[in-house]
Amino acid sequence: MIYETWQAQETKELGRKIGASAKPGEIFLLNGDLGVGKTVFVQGVALGLGIEGPINSPTFTILQVYEDGRIPFYHFDVYRIADVDEMDEIGYEDYFYGNGVCFIEWAELIEEILPKDCISITIEKQLEKGFDYRKITIEES
User: How many domains does the chain fold into?
Assistant: First the structure.
């Protein structure tokens, strides 16, 4: 499925819809360049899960856990992972195979440990269509 958004609020709203329908055990791979709107999208996902507090990208912590929604929300940002073994140190399997939903930014860096059944979300800019335009592609593997 391909979606087009023209404002950050529309990107957040699409994330909210995804969060509202997310199920325990689902893993979403969030792809896109720096500054493309991944955090805005994830803020929407959190709203859809019923999480009211602030949502920040876990760039330096690798993982943020939110348990105050309808299901636990595990938000990974693996941009700073130097070696996939670092994922073992944080006990990634407990989250990937737990009772919550995972969103993983920069998932291509840990491709070898990802389960086969993931949902890939790619966010792209196309500046010729406007500064806030986003093309969002959602594909199930």
Answer: 1
Q: pTM, whole model, 2 decimals?
A: 0.91
DSSP symbols for the chain: -EEEESSHHHHHHHHHHHHHH--TT-EEEEE--TTSSHHHHHHHHHHHTT--S-----TTTSEEEE-SSSS-EEEEE-TT-SSTHHHHHTTHHHHHTSSSEEEEETGGGGGGGS-SS-EEEEEEE-GGG-TT-EEEEEEE-
Question: What's 96's domain CATH number?
Answer: 3.40.50.300
Residue 14 pLDDT > 80: yes
